[in-house]
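Suppose you are handed a protein chain with no further information: no name, no annotation, nothing but its sequence. What can you learn? This example shows the usual starting point.
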Amino acid sequence: MCYAIPGKVVSVDNKTVTVDYFGELRKAHIIDTMVQPREYVYAQGGIVVGKISENEALPILETWKDHFFELKKIDAGLSILDKVSFPILKKVETLTKNEMLTLLAVEDKSELDSFYHTANKIRKERLDNACCVHGILEFSNYCSNNCLYCGINCSNKSIERYRMSEKEILDAVDYAVQLGFKALVLQSGEDLYYTDGMLVNIVKKIRKKHGILLFMSIGERSKDSYKKLYEAGAYGALLRFETGNSKLYTHLRPGKKLEDRLQLICELNNIGFVIATGFLIGLPNQTKKDIINDILLTKSLQPDMYSFGPLIPHPATPLTSVPKPTLDDILKVIALTRIVDPEAKILVTTALETLSFDAKEKGLMAGGNSLMINITPQKFKKSYDLYPGKVIDEPLEETVKKTVGLLHSLGRAPTDLGV
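A reasonable first move is to predict its three-dimensional structure. Written in structure tokens, the prediction is:
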């Protein structure tokens, strides 16, 4: 449902194009689409994902033209910061770790409001009102790992396991594209039933039919496996490191090493993937210092998108009795991340919705600028049981309608205009 607005190519410089959106110039990279000046293109995640004819583009642009600037006015009005009531926030560009700790410890409502408003103002100044909305398709809930925080770990015998067939995956993607999505994530547990060849074939068929940015979220596979997927047309990778505390990581992911995870993320970056990564908030024995280190570690990995969310304890895991974090615990991390990395795309995750009915709105108003919508077919959705409390009964069309309405009320355009 990332309603990409087509833009007119102004110039082409090697593998980079400059695209005009109603007078705004943005950059995008060329990977597999031949582009010439004066042609119209769609861009996602800073990548040209497809072309559109002038005859098709002009009516879309005419429809968007007035609305495009109306949304900017709404966003500008909501981003006004009358005053900064919290002294630390007057020097946001030079925060020390101790000052970051102070921000994460804030409880006073007026100080929290100032914190969130400051982050939202920075988001507006640096990235304007674009808000990319990704669809996520959970195509298998089998997993070979026994992660203590995950409801689909291999030790959970209480859930009904499933694997979507190639046709079911392709049909779900077709439907999502019909609804307007231009960025999709294919996610599964670490399920080696799907060989490299099977996944490459699925990716090729999707990319042959649709001009979309396709992410893979399939856990730890070899660099060669990911390279094959990239060459097939999956240019995005969602791979969290979960926690940068190596002892905590080893405890929560038995048999796994943090350095291996981080090395893979770096390798994916070197291949050229659009990287989304981050961590969990609310893990047992996780400290505020750990969270700050995780923010800084994520930044050092040079991601295209930050993805972090709350630990929602699952009753079939050893962490069932761990208290889940509060909404403000997560909003403070979103806001601090915006301050630490002003240019970042920060995802407001689906898990956040389990903490509050208005979590999406509050996440966006605390510095977030990306969303995820679950596009998994209804018959499978309930079995992808990562955490309790997921919204599973609402029809996808209704979720899309509500999300677009929310974004418009906040002055956000559900689109990605490149970089």
